[in-house]
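Input protein
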Amino acid sequence: MQSFLSIGVFIDGGYYAKVNRALKATESSIIRVRSLFDFISGRIAAAEGVNPSDCQIVEAHYFRGRFRVKDAYDKHLLYNERKFEDTLIENDVIFHYKHLREVERDGVVQVIEKGVDVWFALEAYELATFRKFDYVVLLTGDADHEMLVRKLKALKIKTVLLTWNLTNVDATSPLLKEEAGYHWELSQLINHDPRLKKELLYKLREPAVEPLGDMF
């Protein structure tokens, strides 16, 4: 048994935002990043039979597309973006951004996010290779990351897929779940441990008013 376990966490920002959006609509809450990280390290420590102080997240990375400053300002997004970035900084999360583009097609404006998933996969694989993490935890539900999980397993790195499904339609790719060595579905875990829900969520002062719809 190893005396110290290192964990690398990689967050798909688009997926994380969908989860938070759903939590706002259903629970008037958002995820506490610090509590989520404590949960990850604590669960792995328990599984490996080591002291929690000897099981640490040594790197955490967040990947997301975002609007250029003028567009963000026009859409009244700047304050919320900076506020969330403050949370990432406070928890030593390294953020990686690429600019979003808006394209009009048949009179409908579509937001285009290019290259973020590829960047996510390349960075996760490269860092896992050089840092030699004992565990890699991926917060995503995207089928595009199936090959990333397979490659990480080939490096003999224990890979955890962490998801939180909040709708009747499962937002996690079945292929991704099948490939992952470990899959933690938080909606199921909190059903078995109601205290976990209270620990992981931060209650918003203002209740959410927008419907959940198809955004998750």
In short: Residues 5-148+178-203 form a domain with the Rossmann fold fold (CATH 3.40.50). DSSP finds nine helices and ten strands in the chain.
